[in-house]
Design brief:
By secondary structure, the chain is mainly alpha-helical. The chain has a domain of 40 residues. Helix content is 45%, strand content 0%. It has 3 helices and no strands. α1 runs antiparallel to α2 and α2 packs across α3. The protein is elongated and about 55 Å long.
């Protein structure tokens, strides 16, 4: 369901906005794609986890090296 095809995008949007049931969705796009949309919708509806960053662990045990990406240079 990627690319420029408008129909799958319209179906997904309608499902996310509660305009389609799971059975209708499955009938339109198939079981595998319907399951993916169901999982995505469930993830989008969940509250984000409010996890504090650990302050007792240094994930960078060694010296940090940065890389110049050449931002602003024409390639």
């Amino acid at each position: 369901m990627s690319g420029g095809d408008r129909l799958p995008k319209a179906i997904a949007t309608t499902y996310y906005n509660a305009g389609l049931t799971v059975d209708q969705l499955t009938g339109l796009i198939g079981a595998k794609s319907a399951q993916r949309l169901r999982l995505l919708k469930a993830n989008l509806e969940d509250d984000p986890l409010d996890l504090a960053a650990p302050d007792d662990i240094d994930i960078y045990e060694e010296a940090v090296t940065t890389v110049d990406t050449g931002a602003g240079n024409d390639c």
